[in-house]
Design brief:
The chain has 322 residues and is of the alpha/beta class. Helices cover 43% and strands 23% of the residues. The chain has 3 domains: 3-78, Arc Repressor Mutant, subunit A, CATH 1.10.10.10; 87-161 and 269-302 and 311-318, D-Maltodextrin-Binding Protein, domain 2; 162-267, D-Maltodextrin-Binding Protein, domain 2 (3-Layer(aba) Sandwich), CATH 3.40.190. Helix 8 links the parallel strand 7 and strand 8 (219-222). Helix 1 crosses helix 4. This is LysR family transcriptional regulator.
Amino acid sequence: MELRQLRYFVAIVDHGSLSRAARVLHIVQPALTQQIQQLEEELGASLLHRSAQGMQATDAGKIFYEHALAILKQIADAKSAVAQSTDKPTGTVALGIPQSASGALAFPLLTAVRAAYPDIVFQLTEELTGNLTEQLASGRLNLAILFDDGQLGKFHTKTLVEEQMMYITRANSQFACKRKSITLDKVLQSPLILPSIQHGVRPRIEQVVRAQGKQIENVIDITSIAILKSAILADMGATILPISPFFAEIQRGEMCATPISDVTLSRTVSLCASKNIPLTNAAMAVERLVLDVSRDLCESGRWLGAKSLAEMKPVKSCSPSN
């Protein structure tokens, strides 16, 4: 198996066409076809099939595609690590962030990276926590923001913040609490709209509820934070989440957040890296920025309901511009 075969295969899947991939790769189509046939013979599996939409990966091809991307990225990172200097890091850094944390951290971090390290190609991916864990382990991501559920031992981790989770409803909702705080029993009496189990926050909620000898009986599972917001605004129920994904709606008076008084419901947000794949200088520079930016957001009050747990001291030149 040759690296060029991996590049050829990825190009075909990305472009959905042998002819388009051949043009991008600057090779003739028969030669491209021959290389893919040799790759399939070596693997003993068909990787591509032709459909009305063009060339698409088979089930085996989809699995191989993920591995090919990870291998090609690690090779690119290795070349970048050898070539770059510590004073002016360059190269590509891929960071994954969960949907429920991106509202607070994504844009400030993107701004900070562009300002401090313009030569770094920064790839910011928003995904479900389960997908981020798989991509980080395989090497497709250099770094990932994950929620500490006690299962992060296979990664190098640096703690960022602790976020308080609250009872959130539509303003003037039939499920809204009229007091300054609400008990867990009252929360569980409402229909709850919660992220699905693939989100790192859901297992934490379930754990706390079970520890109180209770269970969530009336729940609507929604994977998308955007759809979850729509369901709350339609007054289909309430949710238990940190404030940050709903900051804009709360500011506009469309939603309200009430503390839960009799249990501690919070999540710990960590920055994670693989234990098996070393970070490039560029990735280490972004790692430092994530720590600095998260602290700055907490200290300035822009990350609502979050308390900084980062260990590194802030670097003024790395803070995002206001």
